Amino acid sequence: MSLNPADLLTTLRHTVGTAHVLTDGDLSVYEQDWRRREHGRALAVVRPGSTDEVAAVVRACTAAGASIVPQGGNTGLAVGSVPDGSGTQVLLSLKRLDHVRAIDTANLTFTVEAGCILQNLQAAAQDAGFLFPLSLAAEGSCTIGGNLATNAGGTQVLRYGNARELCLGLEVVTPQGQVWEGLSGLRKDNTGYDLRDLFIGSEGTLGIITAATLKLYPQPAARLTAWAAVPSMAAAVDLLGLAQQRLAAGLTGFEVMNQFALSLVDKHYPQLRVPLWRDTPWCVLLENSDHESEAHARTQFEALLEAALEVGCVTDAVVAESLAQAKGLWHIRESIPLAQAEEGLNIKHDISLPVSRIPTFVAETDAALAQAIAGVRLVNFGHLGDGNLHYNVQAPEGGDAAQFLQREEDRINTLVFDHVARHGGSISAEHGIGSLKAAKLPHYKSPVALGLMRTIKQALDPQGLMNPGRVLAQRPAAAA
Ligand code: FAD
Prior knowledge:
Layout: H1 5-16, E1 21-22, H2 28-31, E2 44-46, H3 51-64, E3 68-71, E4 90-93, E5 100-104, E6 109-113, H4 118-127, E7 130-131, H5 144-149, H6 157-160, H7 163-166, E8 167-173, E9 179-182, H8 195-199, E10 208-215, E11 217-218, E12 222-230, H9 233-247, E13 251-258, H10 259-268, E14 282-290, H11 294-311, E15 316-319, H12 323-334, H13 336-343, E16 346-347, E17 350-352, H14 358-372, E18 377-383, E19 388-394, H15 401-422, H16 441-444, H17 447-460
Parallel strand pairs: 2-4, 3-4
Antiparallel strand pairs: 1-2, 5-6, 6-10, 7-11, 8-9, 8-10, 12-14, 12-15, 13-14, 13-18, 16-19, 17-19, 18-19
Residues 34, 69-77, 80-81, 94, 114, 136-138, 142-143, 145-147, 149-150, 152-154, 203-204, 208-209, 337, 430-431, 434, 467, 470 line the site of flavin-adenine dinucleotide.
Protein backbone atom coordinates (compact mmCIF):
# COMPACT_ATOMS: atom_id res chain seq x y z
CA MET A 1 0.00 0.00 0.00
CA SER A 2 1.62 3.28 -1.04
CA LEU A 3 -0.60 5.59 1.04
CA ASN A 4 -0.73 5.25 4.78
CA PRO A 5 -3.92 3.29 5.73
CA ALA A 6 -4.92 6.04 8.19
CA ASP A 7 -4.76 8.62 5.38
CA LEU A 8 -6.83 6.35 3.13
CA LEU A 9 -9.47 5.98 5.86
CA THR A 10 -9.59 9.76 6.24
CA THR A 11 -10.15 10.17 2.48
CA LEU A 12 -12.82 7.46 2.48
CA ARG A 13 -14.65 9.08 5.42
CA HIS A 14 -14.53 12.40 3.61
CA THR A 15 -15.91 10.74 0.45
CA VAL A 16 -18.86 8.74 1.80
CA GLY A 17 -19.35 10.10 5.32
CA THR A 18 -17.96 8.72 8.58
CA ALA A 19 -21.12 6.67 9.25
CA HIS A 20 -20.47 4.66 6.08
CA VAL A 21 -16.87 3.68 6.77
CA LEU A 22 -17.09 0.81 9.25
CA THR A 23 -13.96 -0.29 11.06
CA ASP A 24 -15.12 -1.30 14.54
CA GLY A 25 -17.50 -3.79 16.10
CA ASP A 26 -18.70 -7.09 14.73
CA LEU A 27 -18.39 -6.94 10.94
CA SER A 28 -18.90 -10.68 10.34
CA VAL A 29 -21.97 -10.04 8.24
CA TYR A 30 -19.54 -8.52 5.69
CA GLU A 31 -16.39 -10.48 6.52
CA GLN A 32 -17.72 -14.04 6.64
CA ASP A 33 -18.99 -15.83 3.56
CA TRP A 34 -22.44 -17.45 3.47
CA ARG A 35 -21.09 -20.99 3.71
CA ARG A 36 -18.77 -20.06 6.61
CA ARG A 37 -15.76 -21.21 4.66
CA GLU A 38 -13.75 -18.00 5.18
CA HIS A 39 -13.74 -15.24 7.75
CA GLY A 40 -11.53 -12.36 6.60
CA ARG A 41 -10.72 -8.96 8.03
CA ALA A 42 -11.17 -5.72 6.09
CA LEU A 43 -9.29 -2.45 6.53
CA ALA A 44 -12.78 -0.96 6.37
CA VAL A 45 -16.26 -1.70 5.10
CA VAL A 46 -17.17 1.24 2.87
CA ARG A 47 -20.78 1.90 1.90
CA PRO A 48 -21.02 4.51 -0.89
CA GLY A 49 -24.47 5.90 -1.70
CA SER A 50 -24.07 6.79 -5.38
CA THR A 51 -22.11 5.90 -8.51
CA ASP A 52 -19.99 9.03 -8.10
CA GLU A 53 -19.11 7.98 -4.57
CA VAL A 54 -18.19 4.48 -5.80
CA ALA A 55 -15.90 6.08 -8.40
CA ALA A 56 -14.29 8.35 -5.77
CA VAL A 57 -13.74 5.38 -3.42
CA VAL A 58 -12.11 3.40 -6.24
CA ARG A 59 -9.83 6.34 -7.12
CA ALA A 60 -8.79 6.72 -3.48
CA CYS A 61 -8.04 2.99 -3.17
CA THR A 62 -6.13 2.95 -6.45
CA ALA A 63 -4.02 5.91 -5.35
CA ALA A 64 -3.33 4.13 -2.07
CA GLY A 65 -2.64 0.78 -3.75
CA ALA A 66 -5.37 -0.82 -1.63
CA SER A 67 -7.25 -3.73 -3.16
CA ILE A 68 -11.05 -3.71 -3.32
CA VAL A 69 -13.53 -6.51 -2.72
CA PRO A 70 -16.99 -5.62 -4.06
CA GLN A 71 -19.93 -7.08 -2.17
CA GLY A 72 -23.68 -7.20 -2.74
CA GLY A 73 -25.79 -9.50 -0.57
CA ASN A 74 -22.84 -11.74 0.37
CA THR A 75 -24.80 -14.87 -0.59
CA GLY A 76 -22.26 -16.08 -3.14
CA LEU A 77 -21.25 -19.73 -2.81
CA ALA A 78 -17.73 -19.54 -4.27
CA VAL A 79 -16.06 -17.34 -1.61
CA GLY A 80 -15.67 -14.25 -3.76
CA SER A 81 -17.21 -11.45 -1.73
CA VAL A 82 -15.27 -11.41 1.55
CA PRO A 83 -11.86 -9.86 2.28
CA ASP A 84 -8.76 -11.93 2.94
CA GLY A 85 -7.23 -12.01 6.42
CA SER A 86 -4.62 -9.30 5.84
CA GLY A 87 -6.69 -6.40 7.16
CA THR A 88 -5.56 -4.28 4.17
CA GLN A 89 -8.46 -4.74 1.71
CA VAL A 90 -11.37 -2.37 1.36
CA LEU A 91 -14.74 -4.12 1.39
CA LEU A 92 -16.96 -2.11 -0.93
CA SER A 93 -20.62 -2.76 -0.12
CA LEU A 94 -23.05 -1.75 -2.88
CA LYS A 95 -26.17 -2.14 -0.76
CA ARG A 96 -26.95 1.56 -0.48
CA LEU A 97 -27.31 1.81 -4.26
CA ASP A 98 -30.84 0.44 -4.13
CA HIS A 99 -33.05 2.55 -6.39
CA VAL A 100 -35.07 1.64 -9.43
CA ARG A 101 -34.07 4.52 -11.70
CA ALA A 102 -36.60 4.09 -14.51
CA ILE A 103 -39.16 1.73 -16.03
CA ASP A 104 -39.73 1.82 -19.80
CA THR A 105 -42.84 -0.26 -20.37
CA ALA A 106 -42.88 0.15 -24.16
CA ASN A 107 -39.26 -1.01 -24.38
CA LEU A 108 -39.92 -3.76 -21.81
CA THR A 109 -36.94 -2.70 -19.66
CA PHE A 110 -36.14 -1.21 -16.29
CA THR A 111 -32.94 0.42 -15.09
CA VAL A 112 -31.91 -0.39 -11.55
CA GLU A 113 -29.00 0.16 -9.20
CA ALA A 114 -26.62 -2.64 -8.33
CA GLY A 115 -27.55 -2.92 -4.65
CA CYS A 116 -31.26 -3.61 -5.29
CA ILE A 117 -32.33 -6.87 -3.65
CA LEU A 118 -33.52 -9.31 -6.32
CA GLN A 119 -36.87 -9.93 -4.60
CA ASN A 120 -37.56 -6.18 -4.53
CA LEU A 121 -36.93 -6.02 -8.28
CA GLN A 122 -39.33 -8.90 -8.92
CA ALA A 123 -41.93 -6.97 -6.88
CA ALA A 124 -41.21 -3.69 -8.70
CA ALA A 125 -41.68 -5.45 -12.05
CA GLN A 126 -44.91 -7.05 -10.83
CA ASP A 127 -46.23 -3.70 -9.57
CA ALA A 128 -45.70 -2.35 -13.08
CA GLY A 129 -47.61 -5.34 -14.52
CA PHE A 130 -44.56 -7.28 -15.74
CA LEU A 131 -42.35 -10.21 -14.90
CA PHE A 132 -38.66 -10.03 -14.06
CA PRO A 133 -37.92 -13.75 -14.23
CA LEU A 134 -34.56 -14.12 -12.47
CA SER A 135 -35.32 -16.29 -9.45
CA LEU A 136 -33.17 -18.15 -6.94
CA ALA A 137 -33.40 -19.31 -3.37
CA ALA A 138 -31.25 -16.40 -2.11
CA GLU A 139 -33.49 -13.80 -3.80
CA GLY A 140 -34.49 -12.21 -0.47
CA SER A 141 -30.86 -11.23 0.21
CA CYS A 142 -28.83 -11.26 -3.02
CA THR A 143 -28.46 -8.11 -5.10
CA ILE A 144 -28.77 -7.63 -8.83
CA GLY A 145 -25.14 -6.41 -8.93
CA GLY A 146 -24.03 -9.72 -7.40
CA ASN A 147 -26.35 -11.62 -9.75
CA LEU A 148 -24.75 -9.97 -12.76
CA ALA A 149 -21.21 -10.22 -11.39
CA THR A 150 -21.70 -14.00 -11.01
CA ASN A 151 -23.98 -14.39 -14.05
CA ALA A 152 -26.48 -16.08 -11.75
CA GLY A 153 -28.81 -18.75 -13.06
CA GLY A 154 -31.60 -20.03 -10.84
CA THR A 155 -34.87 -21.73 -11.58
CA GLN A 156 -36.15 -19.99 -14.72
CA VAL A 157 -33.08 -20.24 -16.99
CA LEU A 158 -34.73 -22.93 -19.09
CA ARG A 159 -37.17 -20.36 -20.48
CA TYR A 160 -35.63 -16.92 -19.85
CA GLY A 161 -31.86 -17.49 -19.68
CA ASN A 162 -29.44 -16.53 -16.93
CA ALA A 163 -28.56 -13.04 -15.68
CA ARG A 164 -26.49 -12.35 -18.81
CA GLU A 165 -29.47 -12.97 -21.09
CA LEU A 166 -31.66 -10.68 -18.99
CA CYS A 167 -29.29 -7.71 -19.14
CA LEU A 168 -29.17 -5.17 -21.96
CA GLY A 169 -26.86 -2.54 -20.49
CA LEU A 170 -24.54 -1.76 -17.59
CA GLU A 171 -23.05 1.15 -15.72
CA VAL A 172 -19.59 0.25 -14.42
CA VAL A 173 -16.89 1.96 -12.39
CA THR A 174 -13.54 0.94 -13.89
CA PRO A 175 -10.46 0.07 -11.80
CA GLN A 176 -9.21 3.60 -12.60
CA GLY A 177 -12.34 5.11 -11.08
CA GLN A 178 -13.93 6.19 -14.38
CA VAL A 179 -17.64 5.64 -14.98
CA TRP A 180 -18.61 3.69 -18.12
CA GLU A 181 -22.21 4.66 -18.84
CA GLY A 182 -23.41 1.72 -20.89
CA LEU A 183 -27.03 1.66 -19.74
CA SER A 184 -28.39 0.93 -23.17
CA GLY A 185 -31.83 -0.57 -23.53
CA LEU A 186 -30.98 -1.77 -27.02
CA ARG A 187 -31.59 -5.32 -28.16
CA LYS A 188 -29.35 -4.78 -31.16
CA ASP A 189 -26.05 -2.90 -31.00
CA ASN A 190 -23.10 -4.15 -33.06
CA THR A 191 -20.62 -1.36 -32.44
CA GLY A 192 -17.55 -3.33 -31.46
CA TYR A 193 -16.49 -5.47 -28.53
CA ASP A 194 -19.25 -6.31 -26.09
CA LEU A 195 -18.07 -4.68 -22.86
CA ARG A 196 -21.27 -5.58 -21.08
CA ASP A 197 -20.61 -9.27 -21.55
CA LEU A 198 -17.06 -8.80 -20.29
CA PHE A 199 -18.20 -7.43 -16.94
CA ILE A 200 -21.07 -9.90 -16.50
CA GLY A 201 -19.68 -12.97 -14.76
CA SER A 202 -16.34 -11.29 -13.96
CA GLU A 203 -16.99 -11.60 -10.18
CA GLY A 204 -15.74 -8.12 -9.34
CA THR A 205 -12.31 -8.70 -10.88
CA LEU A 206 -12.62 -6.17 -13.72
CA GLY A 207 -14.75 -3.34 -12.29
CA ILE A 208 -17.71 -2.44 -10.11
CA ILE A 209 -21.21 -2.78 -11.57
CA THR A 210 -23.26 0.15 -10.27
CA ALA A 211 -26.45 -0.13 -12.36
CA ALA A 212 -28.07 -2.22 -15.09
CA THR A 213 -30.83 -2.08 -17.67
CA LEU A 214 -32.77 -5.33 -17.56
CA LYS A 215 -35.44 -7.04 -19.63
CA LEU A 216 -39.06 -7.29 -18.53
CA TYR A 217 -41.56 -9.87 -19.78
CA PRO A 218 -45.35 -10.05 -19.86
CA GLN A 219 -46.79 -11.83 -16.83
CA PRO A 220 -48.14 -15.29 -17.75
CA ALA A 221 -51.88 -15.77 -17.21
CA ALA A 222 -51.22 -18.84 -15.06
CA ARG A 223 -48.30 -20.68 -13.51
CA LEU A 224 -48.87 -24.28 -12.48
CA THR A 225 -46.48 -26.50 -10.58
CA ALA A 226 -46.30 -30.28 -10.50
CA TRP A 227 -44.23 -32.71 -8.46
CA ALA A 228 -43.42 -36.09 -9.97
CA ALA A 229 -41.74 -39.25 -8.68
CA VAL A 230 -39.37 -40.65 -11.31
CA PRO A 231 -37.63 -44.05 -11.20
CA SER A 232 -34.17 -42.98 -12.41
CA MET A 233 -32.12 -40.06 -13.70
CA ALA A 234 -32.55 -41.43 -17.21
CA ALA A 235 -36.34 -41.29 -16.66
CA ALA A 236 -36.00 -37.67 -15.49
CA VAL A 237 -34.22 -36.83 -18.76
CA ASP A 238 -36.98 -38.61 -20.73
CA LEU A 239 -39.59 -36.59 -18.81
CA LEU A 240 -37.72 -33.38 -19.67
CA GLY A 241 -37.85 -34.28 -23.38
CA LEU A 242 -41.55 -35.04 -23.17
CA ALA A 243 -42.27 -31.80 -21.28
CA GLN A 244 -40.31 -29.72 -23.78
CA GLN A 245 -42.19 -31.32 -26.63
CA ARG A 246 -45.63 -30.83 -25.09
CA LEU A 247 -45.26 -27.51 -23.26
CA ALA A 248 -42.64 -25.83 -25.50
CA ALA A 249 -41.91 -22.32 -24.16
CA GLY A 250 -44.51 -22.89 -21.40
CA LEU A 251 -42.00 -25.08 -19.55
CA THR A 252 -40.40 -22.54 -17.22
CA GLY A 253 -38.97 -24.81 -14.54
CA PHE A 254 -37.59 -28.34 -14.38
CA GLU A 255 -35.79 -29.24 -11.15
CA VAL A 256 -34.52 -32.64 -10.12
CA MET A 257 -33.90 -33.77 -6.51
CA ASN A 258 -32.51 -37.05 -5.20
CA GLN A 259 -34.02 -38.93 -2.30
CA PHE A 260 -31.24 -38.06 0.14
CA ALA A 261 -31.60 -34.31 -0.59
CA LEU A 262 -35.33 -34.56 0.16
CA SER A 263 -34.73 -36.67 3.26
CA LEU A 264 -32.64 -33.78 4.65
CA VAL A 265 -35.50 -31.34 4.06
CA ASP A 266 -37.86 -33.79 5.75
CA LYS A 267 -35.45 -34.17 8.69
CA HIS A 268 -34.67 -30.49 9.26
CA TYR A 269 -37.97 -28.90 8.14
CA PRO A 270 -40.66 -31.57 8.75
CA GLN A 271 -43.35 -28.87 8.64
CA LEU A 272 -42.77 -28.55 4.86
CA ARG A 273 -44.24 -32.03 4.26
CA VAL A 274 -42.24 -33.26 1.28
CA PRO A 275 -44.50 -35.32 -1.03
CA LEU A 276 -43.74 -38.71 -2.63
CA TRP A 277 -40.06 -38.86 -1.65
CA ARG A 278 -40.01 -42.01 0.47
CA ASP A 279 -40.65 -44.53 -2.31
CA THR A 280 -38.66 -43.10 -5.18
CA PRO A 281 -34.99 -42.38 -5.87
CA TRP A 282 -35.74 -39.05 -7.60
CA CYS A 283 -38.42 -36.37 -7.69
CA VAL A 284 -38.90 -33.68 -10.31
CA LEU A 285 -40.58 -30.31 -9.92
CA LEU A 286 -42.07 -28.89 -13.13
CA GLU A 287 -43.53 -25.46 -13.81
CA ASN A 288 -45.85 -24.62 -16.68
CA SER A 289 -46.40 -20.92 -17.44
CA ASP A 290 -49.36 -20.37 -19.68
CA HIS A 291 -50.40 -17.22 -21.51
CA GLU A 292 -53.97 -18.42 -22.12
CA SER A 293 -55.57 -19.51 -18.83
CA GLU A 294 -55.22 -21.68 -15.76
CA ALA A 295 -57.67 -24.22 -17.19
CA HIS A 296 -55.55 -24.50 -20.35
CA ALA A 297 -52.37 -24.93 -18.30
CA ARG A 298 -53.98 -27.64 -16.17
CA THR A 299 -55.27 -29.61 -19.15
CA GLN A 300 -51.84 -29.48 -20.78
CA PHE A 301 -50.09 -30.48 -17.58
CA GLU A 302 -52.43 -33.39 -16.87
CA ALA A 303 -52.05 -34.69 -20.43
CA LEU A 304 -48.26 -34.51 -20.08
CA LEU A 305 -48.25 -36.41 -16.79
CA GLU A 306 -50.63 -39.06 -18.13
CA ALA A 307 -48.33 -39.63 -21.10
CA ALA A 308 -45.33 -39.79 -18.77
CA LEU A 309 -47.06 -42.34 -16.51
CA GLU A 310 -47.90 -44.40 -19.58
CA VAL A 311 -44.31 -44.59 -20.84
CA GLY A 312 -43.03 -45.18 -17.30
CA CYS A 313 -40.82 -42.12 -16.83
CA VAL A 314 -43.13 -41.03 -13.98
CA THR A 315 -44.48 -43.37 -11.29
CA ASP A 316 -46.64 -40.90 -9.35
CA ALA A 317 -47.40 -37.18 -9.51
CA VAL A 318 -49.31 -34.31 -7.93
CA VAL A 319 -50.32 -31.01 -9.50
CA ALA A 320 -50.60 -28.07 -7.09
CA GLU A 321 -54.23 -27.06 -6.64
CA SER A 322 -53.52 -23.50 -5.52
CA LEU A 323 -50.87 -20.81 -5.56
CA ALA A 324 -50.14 -21.59 -1.92
CA GLN A 325 -49.53 -25.25 -2.74
CA ALA A 326 -47.31 -24.31 -5.68
CA LYS A 327 -45.29 -21.99 -3.45
CA GLY A 328 -45.01 -24.80 -0.91
CA LEU A 329 -43.53 -27.15 -3.52
CA TRP A 330 -41.00 -24.52 -4.63
CA HIS A 331 -40.19 -23.82 -1.00
CA ILE A 332 -39.25 -27.48 -0.52
CA ARG A 333 -36.91 -27.36 -3.50
CA GLU A 334 -35.36 -24.10 -2.32
CA SER A 335 -34.86 -25.43 1.20
CA ILE A 336 -32.41 -28.11 0.08
CA PRO A 337 -29.27 -25.90 0.42
CA LEU A 338 -30.46 -24.74 3.85
CA ALA A 339 -31.24 -28.30 5.01
CA GLN A 340 -27.83 -29.34 3.78
CA ALA A 341 -26.20 -26.54 5.77
CA GLU A 342 -28.17 -27.67 8.85
CA GLU A 343 -26.82 -31.18 8.37
CA GLY A 344 -23.27 -29.82 8.49
CA LEU A 345 -20.29 -28.78 6.40
CA ASN A 346 -20.30 -30.18 2.88
CA ILE A 347 -18.52 -30.05 -0.44
CA LYS A 348 -20.48 -28.35 -3.19
CA HIS A 349 -20.12 -28.93 -6.92
CA ASP A 350 -22.09 -26.66 -9.20
CA ILE A 351 -21.53 -28.41 -12.50
CA SER A 352 -23.07 -28.43 -15.94
CA LEU A 353 -23.13 -31.16 -18.54
CA PRO A 354 -24.92 -31.85 -21.81
CA VAL A 355 -28.30 -33.14 -20.58
CA SER A 356 -27.82 -36.31 -22.63
CA ARG A 357 -24.67 -37.19 -20.62
CA ILE A 358 -26.14 -36.66 -17.16
CA PRO A 359 -27.48 -40.18 -16.43
CA THR A 360 -24.14 -41.80 -17.28
CA PHE A 361 -22.18 -39.10 -15.43
CA VAL A 362 -24.28 -39.62 -12.29
CA ALA A 363 -24.06 -43.43 -12.40
CA GLU A 364 -20.29 -43.42 -12.94
CA THR A 365 -19.45 -40.67 -10.46
CA ASP A 366 -21.75 -42.03 -7.73
CA ALA A 367 -20.04 -45.41 -8.08
CA ALA A 368 -16.52 -43.93 -8.06
CA LEU A 369 -17.25 -41.86 -4.95
CA ALA A 370 -18.85 -44.79 -3.13
CA GLN A 371 -15.74 -46.83 -3.86
CA ALA A 372 -13.36 -44.05 -2.79
CA ILE A 373 -15.11 -43.06 0.44
CA ALA A 374 -17.03 -45.49 2.62
CA GLY A 375 -20.40 -44.11 3.71
CA VAL A 376 -20.27 -41.03 1.46
CA ARG A 377 -23.64 -39.27 1.20
CA LEU A 378 -24.63 -37.51 -2.02
CA VAL A 379 -27.00 -34.56 -2.11
CA ASN A 380 -27.76 -34.33 -5.81
CA PHE A 381 -30.28 -31.78 -7.05
CA GLY A 382 -30.46 -28.97 -9.53
CA HIS A 383 -31.72 -27.34 -12.65
CA LEU A 384 -31.86 -30.42 -14.89
CA GLY A 385 -33.52 -28.43 -17.67
CA ASP A 386 -30.26 -26.42 -17.96
CA GLY A 387 -27.97 -29.44 -17.55
CA ASN A 388 -26.94 -27.99 -14.17
CA LEU A 389 -26.51 -30.24 -11.13
CA HIS A 390 -25.60 -29.33 -7.59
CA TYR A 391 -23.69 -32.53 -7.04
CA ASN A 392 -22.82 -32.13 -3.37
CA VAL A 393 -20.99 -34.41 -1.01
CA GLN A 394 -21.97 -34.66 2.64
CA ALA A 395 -19.55 -36.20 5.12
CA PRO A 396 -20.35 -39.78 6.28
CA GLU A 397 -22.85 -39.81 9.12
CA GLY A 398 -21.49 -39.40 12.64
CA GLY A 399 -17.98 -38.36 11.55
CA ASP A 400 -16.22 -35.03 12.09
CA ALA A 401 -17.31 -33.03 9.02
CA ALA A 402 -14.56 -30.40 9.38
CA GLN A 403 -11.87 -33.07 9.46
CA PHE A 404 -13.52 -34.86 6.56
CA LEU A 405 -13.41 -31.70 4.47
CA GLN A 406 -9.81 -31.00 5.34
CA ARG A 407 -8.76 -34.53 4.50
CA GLU A 408 -10.91 -35.30 1.47
CA GLU A 409 -12.03 -32.11 -0.26
CA ASP A 410 -9.26 -31.88 -2.81
CA ARG A 411 -9.43 -35.59 -3.68
CA ILE A 412 -13.23 -35.45 -4.04
CA ASN A 413 -13.14 -32.28 -6.14
CA THR A 414 -10.56 -33.82 -8.47
CA LEU A 415 -12.56 -37.03 -8.81
CA VAL A 416 -15.81 -35.17 -9.58
CA PHE A 417 -14.23 -32.58 -11.90
CA ASP A 418 -12.32 -35.25 -13.83
CA HIS A 419 -15.62 -37.03 -14.48
CA VAL A 420 -17.22 -33.71 -15.48
CA ALA A 421 -14.38 -33.01 -17.93
CA ARG A 422 -14.62 -36.51 -19.39
CA HIS A 423 -18.30 -35.90 -20.16
CA GLY A 424 -17.73 -32.47 -21.74
CA GLY A 425 -19.00 -30.42 -18.78
CA SER A 426 -18.04 -27.31 -16.81
CA ILE A 427 -16.83 -27.11 -13.18
CA SER A 428 -18.96 -24.02 -12.57
CA ALA A 429 -22.43 -23.69 -14.04
CA GLU A 430 -23.77 -20.67 -12.16
CA HIS A 431 -22.01 -19.97 -8.84
CA GLY A 432 -18.74 -18.76 -10.35
CA ILE A 433 -15.14 -19.49 -9.47
CA GLY A 434 -14.43 -17.11 -6.56
CA SER A 435 -11.39 -18.19 -4.60
CA LEU A 436 -12.86 -21.62 -3.89
CA LYS A 437 -12.22 -22.95 -7.39
CA ALA A 438 -9.52 -20.56 -8.63
CA ALA A 439 -6.73 -23.09 -8.14
CA LYS A 440 -8.71 -25.79 -9.99
CA LEU A 441 -9.64 -23.66 -13.00
CA PRO A 442 -6.29 -24.03 -14.84
CA HIS A 443 -6.71 -27.82 -14.82
CA TYR A 444 -10.07 -27.68 -16.58
CA LYS A 445 -9.99 -24.56 -18.78
CA SER A 446 -8.12 -24.29 -22.06
CA PRO A 447 -4.69 -22.62 -21.66
CA VAL A 448 -5.56 -20.36 -24.59
CA ALA A 449 -8.76 -19.20 -22.86
CA LEU A 450 -6.90 -18.64 -19.60
CA GLY A 451 -4.18 -16.68 -21.40
CA LEU A 452 -6.81 -14.41 -22.97
CA MET A 453 -8.48 -13.95 -19.57
CA ARG A 454 -5.15 -12.92 -18.00
CA THR A 455 -4.53 -10.46 -20.85
CA ILE A 456 -7.93 -8.86 -20.29
CA LYS A 457 -7.36 -8.66 -16.54
CA GLN A 458 -3.92 -7.07 -17.04
CA ALA A 459 -5.29 -4.54 -19.56
CA LEU A 460 -8.23 -3.43 -17.43
CA ASP A 461 -6.71 -3.75 -13.96
CA PRO A 462 -2.93 -3.45 -14.35
CA GLN A 463 -2.42 -2.90 -10.62
CA GLY A 464 -4.37 -6.08 -9.84
CA LEU A 465 -6.46 -4.33 -7.19
CA MET A 466 -9.93 -5.57 -8.15
CA ASN A 467 -10.86 -8.61 -6.07
CA PRO A 468 -7.40 -10.21 -6.36
CA GLY A 469 -7.11 -13.99 -6.28
CA ARG A 470 -10.70 -14.49 -7.40
CA VAL A 471 -11.36 -16.31 -10.71
CA LEU A 472 -7.67 -16.14 -11.69
CA ALA A 473 -5.45 -17.54 -8.95
CA GLN A 474 -2.52 -15.31 -8.09
CA ARG A 475 0.68 -16.71 -9.48
CA PRO A 476 3.57 -17.37 -7.16
CA ALA A 477 5.98 -14.37 -7.19
CA ALA A 478 8.74 -16.29 -9.03
CA ALA A 479 6.43 -17.17 -11.91
CA ALA A 480 4.81 -13.75 -12.19
P1 FAD B 1 -22.14 -11.44 -3.39
O1 FAD B 1 -22.15 -12.76 -2.72
O2 FAD B 1 -22.05 -10.25 -2.52
O3 FAD B 1 -20.93 -11.39 -4.44
C1 FAD B 1 -20.73 -12.44 -5.36
C2 FAD B 1 -19.56 -12.04 -6.30
O4 FAD B 1 -19.91 -10.90 -7.07
C3 FAD B 1 -18.29 -11.64 -5.55
O5 FAD B 1 -17.19 -12.01 -6.33
C4 FAD B 1 -18.38 -10.13 -5.48
O6 FAD B 1 -17.11 -9.51 -5.38
C5 FAD B 1 -19.05 -9.80 -6.79
N1 FAD B 1 -19.92 -8.61 -6.77
C6 FAD B 1 -21.01 -8.41 -5.98
N2 FAD B 1 -21.60 -7.25 -6.31
C7 FAD B 1 -20.84 -6.70 -7.30
C8 FAD B 1 -20.94 -5.50 -8.04
N3 FAD B 1 -21.93 -4.64 -7.86
N4 FAD B 1 -19.98 -5.25 -8.98
C9 FAD B 1 -18.97 -6.13 -9.19
N5 FAD B 1 -18.84 -7.28 -8.51
C10 FAD B 1 -19.77 -7.56 -7.58
N6 FAD B 1 -26.79 -18.81 -7.54
C11 FAD B 1 -27.30 -19.14 -8.75
O7 FAD B 1 -26.75 -18.74 -9.76
N7 FAD B 1 -28.42 -19.93 -8.84
C12 FAD B 1 -29.06 -20.40 -7.76
O8 FAD B 1 -30.05 -21.12 -7.89
C13 FAD B 1 -28.55 -20.05 -6.46
N8 FAD B 1 -29.16 -20.48 -5.35
C14 FAD B 1 -28.66 -20.10 -4.13
C15 FAD B 1 -29.32 -20.52 -2.98
C16 FAD B 1 -28.86 -20.14 -1.72
C17 FAD B 1 -29.60 -20.58 -0.48
C18 FAD B 1 -27.71 -19.32 -1.62
C19 FAD B 1 -27.19 -18.86 -0.29
C20 FAD B 1 -27.04 -18.91 -2.77
C21 FAD B 1 -27.50 -19.29 -4.03
N9 FAD B 1 -26.86 -18.89 -5.19
C22 FAD B 1 -27.37 -19.23 -6.41
C23 FAD B 1 -25.61 -18.13 -5.11
C24 FAD B 1 -25.80 -16.59 -4.95
O9 FAD B 1 -27.00 -16.26 -4.40
C25 FAD B 1 -25.62 -15.90 -6.26
O10 FAD B 1 -24.30 -16.09 -6.69
C26 FAD B 1 -25.93 -14.40 -6.24
O11 FAD B 1 -25.94 -13.98 -7.59
C27 FAD B 1 -24.92 -13.57 -5.47
O12 FAD B 1 -25.44 -12.26 -5.28
P2 FAD B 1 -24.93 -11.36 -4.07
O13 FAD B 1 -25.50 -10.01 -4.20
O14 FAD B 1 -25.16 -12.04 -2.77
O15 FAD B 1 -23.36 -11.30 -4.39
